[in-house]
Amino acid sequence: MTTALQPRSASAASPLPAAVRAARIVHPFPTLLNAAATAGLAFVASDGSPDTGIVVRMVVVMLLVQCAIGVTNDVFDRELDARTKPWKPIAAGLVTPRAAVVLALAFLVASLALAVTLGPAGFGLAALGAACGMAYDMKFKRTVFSAVPYAVAIPTLPLWVYVSLDRAEPVLWWLLPLGALIGVTLHLANTLPDIEADAANGVRGLAHRLGVTRSMQVSWLMFAAALGLAAALGPFLEADMRWYAGSLATGAACLLAAVRAYAVRGEAALRLNFAATSIGTAVTAVGWLAAVT
Description:
mainly alpha, 0% strand
């Protein structure tokens, strides 16, 4: 990684080596989480026996795409981060903006080059997912349409996995409305922990316009709607009710936990709300797919 080491107080205060702190520009947690989700979905799609070579390529594509998105996020947020998160790599002077741009482009080009090996449909869906992430970082994050990239990207991920493994089925079209609802849910829940600092520095995404309380309520409503739609579809999709009932019950329990946490702790529970919502939506989505495919 090309870095520009410029010691500052925010950097010097950390006990971690500079290279480790600079590496956080790729947003390791969401990057690894999405790679793990790709592998997990591949096992669900192939009934536990996926083609190892294809899965490895898909996981690497996802890692590269998420790295590109993470770096791009830090490039476009560098002025905001300098005021609110001075420990981040560009804000701390660990990586120059120019080096970050080159790095993001390298990750993106490499991901698309490898995605070509997944076939035309696999490449197209991989490119769509990457475009959603880049568009959010570069433009949508600061507009009333900030949830749109999430609403498109969330259903794209499982569709990409199933198509790349040649396991696509007509029932997967239901991922579009279910995934869109979950995408809005996750976008709002993810934005809330930083909403005040972002709003104070001019960020005007959907959550910032709605405010904390209404954003929370809309997030819960979207999750409840996804659970309701999934439950209503069950009798018509010849679903395995063992997976179906368990995943929906877990999702509902997580939703109730999020509501309860906010009722008891107020805005102190915003990160807990995101954790509960993330777990609940992930279990619901994977369980639904396992039940109907």
